């Protein structure tokens, strides 16, 4: 009751007299009304000297009571702070077993395990120490020490964080295992393994196709060395090759189809494709020779026979070197991918694991590009929705 009276007295002493004015209407015009107080403050009422003295004494008494209450509240707060400080100091002393004025890592771990009755991992206690060690000296001073309950809350937060990290790591490991299985499945579909001895020998055979077509450029060398056993073997092979109708087209078609079979070893498929490109390269020297001959006929001169023979020998020699390099590399199990321009074009055409979908089905280059474009459009639409 006294507190209520004190509060009322303080409000009355702090407030000023307030009057409200209201407009009055007179004959359609707004006129300013005289200010009429709605109430009259106590200190403006007429009192006798005795009554005024009593009121002044009451106000002084209320003010004194208010001051006393504030002093009591401050004293209570000081007592509470002192008790908290004493409790913190007592808890600190329980942890500071060697009484050196600071709590080390071992003391913190032992004290928490005793208070919480649970064994704590060293890593978690270390994280806890780092969180509360504001000075960074590796130990806790009394001004850095907090209650056991705060330690518990922080430990629980660290445990939840570790659990989430462990869950994320487990999910990542599962995803990695699934991706590994998928890669292995794709590898089974696409034979990119180390070539066997049979694969090495078979990978050399496709180069017979460009070799047969290049014999037209080696006719001068072969005629001069007709008795050479190697030349005789080439002549026999060329006879058998030409005995097959449309032998060049059939060879091209066969190599092109077989090189698309992912079950064949990569070395075999690579050499099939490269043999096709090497054979196509033979078209350009013949085209140039025909153009020079046509230009020479139009201009009234002929290319010297010696120069034509030399050019043919150079082309045939380059072809033998190319086929020799590819054959030796293949027999050693090394992909012959050092032929200028041609090898790079073949590498670009070779299928890779990324060209197979999750079901192990091969996706052609054009379909894969269309799929990538569609996926990009979907991602763009998602980004637009997110921005909106």
Q: What can you tell me about this protein's structure?
A:
The protein is mostly helical and 388 residues long. The protein has three domains: 1-9 and 51-70, no CATH class; 95-185, EF-hand (Recoverin, domain 1); 196-350, no CATH class. It is built from 15 helices and two strands. The protein has helices spanning 2-14, 49-95, 105-116, 122-132, 148-189, 197-204, 208-214, 219-224, 229-243, 247-258, 266-281, 283-299, 305-331, 342-349, 365-387; strands at 24-26, 29-31. Strands 1-2 form a two-stranded antiparallel sheet. Strand 1 (24-26) and strand 2 (29-31) form a beta hairpin. Helix 4 (122-132) packs across helix 5, helix 6 packs parallel to helix 11 and helix 11 (266-281) crosses helix 14. The radius of gyration is 50 Å and the shape is elongated. It starts with a helix and ends with a helix. Residues 1-39 have low confidence and may be disordered.
In short:
With 388 residues, the protein is mostly helical.
Topology:
Layout: H1 2-14, E1 24-26, E2 29-31, H2 49-95, H3 105-116, H4 122-132, H5 148-189, H6 197-204, H7 208-214, H8 219-224, H9 229-243, H10 247-258, H11 266-281, H12 283-299, H13 305-331, H14 342-349, H15 365-387
Helix pairs in contact: 1-2, 4-5, 6-11, 6-13, 7-11, 10-11, 11-14
């Amino acid at each position: 009751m006294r507190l209520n009276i004190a509060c009322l007295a303080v409000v009355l002493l702090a407030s000023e007299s307030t009057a409200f004015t209201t407009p009055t209407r007179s004959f359609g015009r707004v006129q300013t009304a005289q200010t009429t107080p709605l109430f009259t403050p106590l200190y403006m009422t007429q009192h006798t000297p005795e009554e005024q003295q009593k009121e002044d004494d009451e106000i002084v008494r209320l003010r004194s009571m208010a001051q006393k209450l504030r002093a009591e509240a401050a004293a209570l707060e000081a007592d509470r702070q002192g008790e908290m400080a004493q409790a913190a100091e007592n808890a600190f002393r329980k942890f500071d077993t060697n009484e050196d004025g600071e709590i080390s890592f071992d003391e913190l771990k032992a004290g928490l395990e005793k208070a919480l009755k649970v064994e704590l991992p060293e890593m978690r206690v270390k994280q806890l120490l780092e969180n509360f060690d504001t000075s960074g000296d590796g130990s806790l001073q009394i001004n850095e020490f907090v209650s056991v309950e705060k330690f518990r809350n922080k430990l629980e937060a660290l445990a939840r964080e570790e659990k989430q990290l462990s869950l994320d790591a487990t999910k990542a490991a599962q995803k990695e295992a699934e991706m590994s299985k998928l890669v292995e499945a794709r590898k089974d579909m696409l034979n990119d393994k180390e070539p066997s001895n049979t694969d090495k020998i078979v990978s050399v055979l496709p180069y017979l196709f460009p070799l047969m077509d290049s014999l037209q450029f080696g006719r001068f060398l072969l005629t001069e060395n007709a008795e050479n056993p190697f030349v005789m073997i080439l002549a026999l092979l060329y006879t058998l090759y030409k005995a097959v109708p449309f032998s060049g087209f059939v060879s091209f078609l066969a190599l092109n189809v077989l090189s698309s079979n992912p079950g064949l070893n990569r070395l075999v498929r690579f050499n099939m494709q490269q043999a096709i490109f090497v054979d196509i390269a033979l078209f350009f020297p013949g085209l140039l020779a025909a153009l020079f001959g046509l230009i020479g006929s139009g201009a009234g001169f002929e290319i010297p026979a010696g120069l034509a023979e030399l050019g043919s020998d150079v082309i045939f020699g380059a072809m033998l070197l190319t086929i020799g390099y590819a054959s030796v590399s293949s027999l050693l199990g090394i992909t012959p991918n050092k032929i200028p321009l041609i090898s790079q074009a073949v590498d670009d055409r070779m299928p890779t694991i990324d060209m197979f979908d999750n079901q192990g089905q091969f996706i052609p280059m054009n379909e894969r590009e269309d799929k990538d474009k569609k996926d990009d459009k979907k991602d763009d639409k998602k980004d637009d929705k997110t921005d909106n």
